[in-house]
Amino acid sequence: xxxxxxxxxxxxxxxxxxxxxxxxxxxxxxxxxxxxxxxxxxxxxxxxxxxxxxxxxxxxxxxxxxxxxxxxxxxxxxxxxxxxxxxxxxxxxxxxxxxxxxxxxxxxxxxxxxxxxxxxxxxxxxxxxxxxxxxxxxxxxxxxxxxxxxxxxxxxxxxxxxxxxxxxxxxxxxxxxxxxxxxxx
Length: 185
Description:
- By secondary structure, this protein is mainly α.
- The protein is built from 6 helices and 2 strands, in the order αββααααα.
- The protein has a two-stranded antiparallel ribbon with strand order 1-2.
- The termini are close together.
C-alpha cells in the first residue's frame, strides 16, 4: 500500500484546526480553536521523502532537522555527496551524471536543501520527464523518481533493480474533489 503519510497527517491537522461544534439549536455554532500555547520544537523535516532518511548521517540527524533550509546546502552538501557516492554506482566515476545532467556535487547541492518547491505558474509535479521538482501531485511516484535520479544514471538505464520501488499506483483511486485522498480503509 502506497500511503502518503505526510499529506494525510497534514489533512488531519488542518481539519482539527477547523473543528466546529453545533448545539441542538442550528443557529448556535461555535468555532473551537486548539490551544497551541507551550514550547514546541521541530523534530524532523521531510520536504522530499527519503532524502533526509538516506543522505543525512545518523550523528547529524538532529542538527539537520533544526537547520534552516536556506543554510542546509552550505552546511550538509559535502556529507550528502560523500553518502551518494558511497551508495550509488551511478556516481562511482568522475563526471558521472544523472538524467537531469547533474554530477554528484550539483545533485547533492539540490538535495541538501530539503524543501518542496512549488511552481506558481506551471505544472505541479515531482518529475514528469520535463518538469522537475515543481511541486508534488498526489499521484506522483516520488520514491521511484528519487531512486531513478540516484541510481539510474544519465538515461535511467543503469542499475534497474535499484531504480524502482515497484509500487506503480495507490491501492485506492484518489477522489476528484476535496479532500482528494481516499479513505484509508
